[in-house]
């Protein structure tokens, strides 16, 4: 499947793998609330990226914009996870760096899709 070669897909896929490894260290009280929400949003972002890579130009922009919105929600929930001390500062920074990069890639994809 050629979609797995898309850099934004790989970056998001790898971020989910990190999220998955962090899960066991998340306090139980947060694991099934804020952390689960973070994981769900990240999976929705991954799904949006896959969907956008499969469809025609005309339908692509709305899917990418919705995916960008989900990414912004994810940023808020990750910050909340840090603020309630579900994740430490080091992991938070690592996740934020990845989210920023994914956001830039997504923004570029949206811009280039609108230009066509």
Automatic annotation (TrEMBL):
CDD domains: Avd_like
Domain of life, per lineage: Bacteria
A Pfam cross-reference name: bAvd
Limits of the bAvd-like domain: 9-112
InterPro entries: 23S_rRNA_IVS_sf, bAvd
NCBIfam families listed in its UniProt record: DivGenRetAVD
Protein name per Swiss-Prot or TrEMBL: bAvd-like domain-containing protein
Organism: Candidatus Taylorbacteria bacterium RIFCSPHIGHO2_01_FULL_46_22b
